[in-house]
Amino acid sequence: MSRIIPRLARLRTRPSLSEYHEIEARLKSSHWDLFDDSISAYHAKQLYATLQSVINPTARFMNENMESLNKRFCKGKTVPYGYSMIYCNPISGENELGFDGFDNYHAPCTEDKDYFYRRMWVAGSFQFNPDRPLRFGDEVRFTETVDKIRQYKRLEQIGVDYRREYKVDNVWSIIETRKLYYIQKTYTEERYHLVEDSDPDHTVVIVPSTVSIFRSSALMFNSHLVHYNPIYGSRYEDYPSIIVSGPLLVQLMLHFWQQHNPDTTALSLKYKIINPSFANERIDLCIRETSKHRHRLWANSRDGDLCFVADLIIA
């Protein structure tokens, strides 16, 4: 915890209106690019082992499944849906992180001030190009920009939308958006008591462990403390336990969907994270075909409340 204390000196109350306009101008004009990042099959194998270990806790790889993994994840094969999230993430030094350990490059802050106690990954989307899917071994040109920034509740909350585009040979392959909220309030036990009003075609019960959450975060270079430091989460953000990250929920949901739809082409995904999920607690992953070209994906927490919901459009 000693590294957190100096960062806490950066923490301030909500920004003034003039500070907000300065932040807005900086974020809207900022971007970062990668020009020659290679899509590694090895990192995808690590993610597969992480996800499959959650879906099937008896899965083994080093002694039993390495040959099949090597055939499935190799140069030229298509990157599974959701796996692109482990590539092309910000590379920040520790002195560039927020007090919560998360990357601050596109955050509503200044060089010496953090204005919000908590940031949450609340929604996102993907567009997949069926004519040019991302493949292992591809040399990718990647760009991330801020698409939108909005303030709510008299600057007590700011929402930022990020746009991430993966191109290969000047043709877009994946366009991803990520929506993060930056808020003043710490976590409370209040939850949105929402349920999905239909029965799933397929469902599986999972219990993400602290190890799985850590591995997923490490593959994304995500050092957000709420995903591996329970003391920080409890003391500074009032969380009862380690949080299951938004990307891990997305990847688990798509991993489970692809197991039941291995030959189906996805065109787009739009998702929301309704309630937080916690380590070592039950989550039910559910899939339902709602029409010829649309599947509904959702996840329930141990109390039956929705924690994740998504609409997947297929070819």
Automatic annotation (TrEMBL):
Q: Which InterPro entries does the protein's record reference?
A: HotDog_dom_sf, Mitochondrial_HTD2
Which GO molecular function entries does the Swiss-Prot or TrEMBL record give? (3R)-hydroxyacyl-[acyl-carrier-protein] dehydratase activity
The entry's cellular-component GO terms read:
mitochondrion
The name this protein goes by in its record: Uncharacterized protein
